[in-house]
Amino acid sequence: MFLSFVFNNKIISQELNAQVIVNSNLVNQTNQQIFETLEKSLNEFINNQSWTNREFLNNEKITCSFIFTLSSYKNEKFEGTLQVQSQRPIFDSNYDSPILNFLDKDIEFRYQEFQPLFFNRSSFESNLVSIVSYYSFLIIGMDMDTFKLNGGSFSFDNAQTIVNLARQSGFKGWNPNESDRNRFWLIESMLSNSYSDYRKSSYIYHKNGLDFMTSNNFEAKKSIIESINNLEKVYNVRPDSYLLQIFFDAKSDEIVNIFSGGPKVDFDSTLIILNKISPFFNSKWKQIKM
Question: Do residues 231 and 209 make contact, with C-beta atoms less than 8 angstroms apart?
């Protein structure tokens, strides 16, 4: 009886603590019920799904958000954009570091109100399920990469499987010939050996850098410098690498804050590298007060 009680009360937590928002302000639709139902269904689907075989404690769940901004709804077809964001707690602090801040402009799917959402690892169920499942695995993989070198490979493999299954669906975002910056190329780049230094930099930046900011700020900054300098190798492979955009879209403000206070470190050469590999944020790099 006691053993049965323990087993039945064992909590296997899901990996994500996600907030899903469905914004329908741009849609000319008087009946908002379907958007509210969609939002509720997505919140339940993402947060109740076990995406990996790993057990997560409640305080280990990955905080993230999925913000759908819909621009069209007609005959059960939805179109719009999706902003996906995730963050990671930093050791011995109350600070959460942004990991992913990505806008997907190729959002289209069909959905009937109260339609059940099911994830099947071996088949394409619906484009809505494929999109949110893809980004769930991407979030988990990127998070795991910050704790262990290449720790997110299994999740990235699952995201790539979703891409392969969805490519024949006819929906946008899954095929390499549509764009050089879509879901296909994002996961393709993440798993490519040519860009392995991106994942190495992510690990060094967080595990050897940010996680030591409270205990040894000087050495932590040096590790973050190492990680940024290492990203130049990604730039050398492809100057307009998708992954560099992904990294600095999430990290630009944080980098400015890190190197605008605290103990001084030799940052001159790294600043030159930042202006080289991420020129879009030059105005932010000018804000760094060394």
Answer: no
